[in-house]
Amino acid sequence: MMRSARAWKAGLTALLLVGLGTCAFAQIAVSEFEQALRAIPVSEIDRYVAAVELVLNQPDFPAVEVFQLIERLAMTPYSAQEKEALLFDMVVAMEDGLPVDGLVTKGLEGLARGVPVPQIKQSLHQRLILLAETRDLLYAKGIFSVAPGSPQSVPTALPTPRFNLLVTHISDTIADYLEGGGSPFEGQTLYQEVRFRLTSLEGVTLNAEDVDLVLKRIEPADMTRVALSAVT
Amino acid sequence: MRQNEIDEILRDTLRQEVAETTAGLVGLEERIVIELGERRPRLRVSGWLRQLLAPTRGGRIGQLSVVSATAAICLLLGFFVANQVGLDGGSPGIRLTPSRTTNGGQEVLFVLPALDATDVSVVGNFNSWEPTALSDDDNDGIWMASIPLPPGRYEYAFVIDGRWWGQDPLADEYVQSYGEYSSVRYVGGGDGA
């Protein structure tokens, strides 16, 4: 009986410790980011920390993944300049209010595959351009983003997380297409790729009305224009 | 001795030899057949292979047998794998169809046949590209892991003894990443895919 009670106590303590550990890991403080950035080290530490502070509380900011990327990057045998160059695109995206999920996961994949850091940087830079161009395309098509909870000025103004998901998936599809050797001039094929990606996620992570709205407003020629921006 | 006596002796001698020889030939054919049957030559592996690969009619028949046997083994292996992963829907084995989790996601099964592998894992954007081990508890070369995933689109690859393999036959699509293939699965949605 006594032994059983002890076992329960030990089990509960272990569970509590694991729980606390998980919470501590999930809530990464700005100071921890700063420490990780200093390990690289980056030249403009204040700018990097400010960029993290800017987006850390946003619901769709992948804090854990960004932190992992910085930590893993610090361990690679490349020069501080090369490592910083990779992170720089991330910081630019954060400052510009662009979603960084796609960039982070591509960066982590590249490191896991043992791809040279300058090559990862090249891939991320192309993706950064595509993110910005895709967002601008949606703006040009009258699809906007509003902060969650803010008044919706026009019916096509979507809450930022929903808008960002669209930007991420459209730009990622174009980036994957180009990385697979596709030509930016094949606008129709690109459009079909984007349509497939968005409809596959319709009702899964993307709002069905948002997908419908985007597919009605974008055209194959738009896809070519966005893709060309990343290769020229 | 007169000539006719000599002839008589020669005739008798010849008759005797013929009679002896003939007695030895009685049942000879039958004996040969029996003996041949008992001494059926055994082909060694090298001889068997030579015959198998020979461009004779018999050789071609041998090749056909090998092709048929290979096809049969593949079919049996297919049925076995299907039984293991529950492709037929009615088997009590592990099902490929993902089961729902509480967050609307699914238990997604990653399966890979890797007969000679000693270490198989899966890496993807669901685990920050850090390996999650697959297991082969019954040592049949079929490696598996069931991972609960929230709804979304997941890129992944298998790592077989340190070598990346991004073309999972069960993937919904493939993308090229850094010059290599990655598999993609869509989790969630109405069709349970």
CA-based gyration radius of chain B: 36 Å
Query: Which geometry of chain A do the CA atoms define?
Result: globular
Uncertain stretches of 5 or more adjacent residues of chain B: 39-62, 79-96
Main sheet characteristics of chain B = 6 strands, antiparallel
State the end-to-end distance of chain A: 74 Å
Number of helices of chain A: 11
Strand order of the largest sheet of chain A: 1-2
Count of individual domains of chain A: 2
Number of helices of chain B: 4
Cα-to-Cα separation, first versus last residue of chain B = 116 Å
Helix percent of chain B reads 25-40%
Strand content of chain B: 25-35%
Low-confidence stretches of chain A: 12-25
What about the largest sheet of chain A?
Answer: 2 strands, parallel
CATH architecture of the largest domain in chain B: Sandwich
Summarize the structure.
Chain A is mainly α. Chain A contains 11 helices and 2 strands, in the order αααααααββαααα.
Explain this structure to me?
- The complex is a heterodimer of chains A (232) and B (193).
- Chain A has 232 residues and is mainly alpha-helical.
- Chain A has helices at residues 2-26, 30-38, 45-55, 63-74, 80-95, 101-113, 117-140, 160-179, 187-200, 208-217, 220-231, and strands spanning 144-146, 157-159.
- Chain A has eleven helices and two strands; from the N terminus they run αααααααββαααα.
- Chain A has a two-stranded parallel sheet with strand order 1-2.
- With 193 residues, chain B is α+β, with helices and mostly antiparallel strands.
- Chain B folds into three domains: 1-40; 54-96, no CATH class; 101-187, Sandwich (Immunoglobulin-like).
- Chain B is 37% helix and 26% strand.
- Chain B contains four helices and nine strands.
- The longest helix of chain B has 29 residues, at 57-85.
Task: Give keywords.
heterodimer; A: 232 residues; mainly alpha; 2 domains; two-stranded parallel sheet; 2 strands; 3% strand; B: 193 residues; alpha+beta; Immunoglobulin-like; 3 domains; six-stranded antiparallel β-sheet; three-stranded antiparallel β-sheet; 4 helices
